[in-house]
Input
Amino acid sequence: MANTMARSFLQAVATEEVSQPLRAVQMEGLAVLKIIKHCKEFSPALVTGQLLGLDVGSVLEVTNCFPFPTREEDDENEADGANYQLEMMRCLREVNVDNNTVGWYQSTLLGSYQTVELIETFMNYQENIRRCVCIIYDPSRSNQGALALKALKLTETFMDLYRNNNFTGEKLREKKLSWVDIFEEIPIKVSNSALISAFMTELEPDSPVVQCDLDRLKLSTAPFMERNLEFLIECMDDLSAEQNKFQYYYRNLSRQQAQQQTWLQKRRTENIARKAAGEEPLPEEDPSNPIFKPIPEPSRLDSYLITNQVANYCNQINGAAGQSFSKLYLMKAFQEN
Output
């Protein structure tokens, strides 16, 4: 009886944990520093790594991480990478460090991370891990004065559609899924142990720093703005190509419907003549006729991802332009005085 009650209690707790949505990602300060160090050392090349930690209720704790080895373009041996991951996790387990995989991290260049490859990686992780996140770090944007670190996960509605590979306009309207509903950003909380906090307090200097940070007064943001505009133009070209695909599809659909109406009108006229002659009417549908074969609708996934990228580049340009205008107004006030 006691074993039955204990089993029921554990099942209830497990069900409650599964039903809790992910509310926050709590990262250890050491893990954040290791991610930043790895991404900056290899910038502008893109790197990835494994996140380790615990899944506790509605909070995903990231306590450690390790980088994946960089591979050459002609190196396609994935078995070595998998063996490396297993060996690293085994070594961490031997030294009593958290070795539960809770996701992965990757670097990006000016926020260009919303790709089909990222979605496929998410789906592969979801097969083995109940809840996982991807930590995105952008070294190029962090150089502009903001810590470009974010945690992402796929929405449940989008994953259902992706599993069925059904991104038609009718299905998207039925699920009420727009381009902003692909990824969900989870708030990140950086935490440190009491011992590390005390140590950092001891390292703080007694007197405040008096040296001026002249980099904040630099008025030129040309490289950052230029690369953002280049990527934005490329995305607009890709979006225009996707729109041309849909226009071509709708033109073919309209042409097919016109051919079907012409064929049906001809068949009905022929059936009227057959009825007048006392013959059996012919069926008004002919599946073997090519004009009755449905034209497959192109997937809207690529256009959704490109639209997300366009919005991301516009937000970055808007933020950089706002800071530049503030500096210009400040310099103008200095010159007038």
